[in-house]
Design brief:
With 360 residues, the protein is an alpha/beta fold. It is built from eight helices and 21 strands. The protein has helices at 33-36, 140-150, 190-198, 218-221, 234-245, 255-264, 303-307, 314-326; strands at 2-3, 15-19, 25-29, 42-46, 49-50, 54-59, 64-72, 83-89, 112-115, 118-125, 131-136, 176-178, 202-208, 228-232, 250-253, 270-271, 273-277, 292-296, 330-331, 337-341, 356-357. It starts with a strand and ends with a strand.
Length: 360
Amino acid sequence: MKAATTPVQRPHDARLLVVDASGQVQHAPRSALPGLLRPGDLLVANDAATLPASLSGVHRPSGEAIEVRLASRRSLAVDDVHEFTAITFGAGDHRTRTEDRAAPPLLHPGDPLQLGPLRAEVVHTLGHPRLVTLRFEGTPDSIWAGLARHGKPIQYAHMREPLALWDVWTRVAALPVAFEPPSAGFVLDWQLLQRLRERGIGFATLTHAAGISSTGDATLDARLPFDEPYHLPVATVQAVAQARARGGRIVALGTTVTRALEHAASSGPLRSGPGLADQRIGPQTRLRVVDALLSGTHEPGASHHTLLRAFVGPALLRRIDEALESRHYRTHEFGDSVLIERTRQTTVRPARHPAIAHGP
């Protein structure tokens, strides 16, 4: 695969690798997506808007430059913006590969940081010199204003020009809670949603605080994904039940949607309301809700790639990787896509009419 280097969400030549439940692999233009879904299916998207979560500034005890990339928090509450888990870097910017970035200054609990107009304090170090809990000073309104004025979208070296915030918001973006874009949703536009509706394909949303995809450190990357809060609306739970009742599939638009839906059903019936996805999805996961995944392409070794093992066995995943590589599919957030249905060998199907529970 090769990196997509232009921030175009819906390029005219975008491609889609399709894997059906029998393991057959096909190639199609991504514009063919509505015809590849079935009447009665339900497509579920993440409507999280992306935060400008990269903050440059100064480590005040040493006077050294620091970049903070906000990476997670405990809830989606609008006023809950004082405390974040964050990845830190030393001097430099996104034009240097993440794995080649300078280390941050030595950080200790209580160290103050000046991040543009924002003041923050290191609360804890989290078992790694670059992973910390930060607490911002000020009111929620002042913190939001500081993020808007000073923050930038988290960005990597494959994209040389700076990203604007509108580059990383999907067409259905709502609450700004994602740390990196739920980029599978870049396929969406109003024309596509209309075509889905005309074919009798349902559409629903949830809100999930999509986390970061890479830290530049193998030890930290092994801890991804971090815990991620989400909110599952009652209407989406009802839409899942209705799709099941008519024999449709639940198609998750992205790995974050898969993680939220599966967490919400992990201890019983699919539940609406808030939750904190703290599980990892992989080869041992028994999928209870999601039948198919529409996602970007992911390189082996990434946590998103490991998640695919819940849908297909290792041999088929190797065939998928080989097909993506041999056809030079584009990867990263503005790349091509895959549509993978759970294979018969790995499918653990839920009941046709799952019970519905509401509330936390």
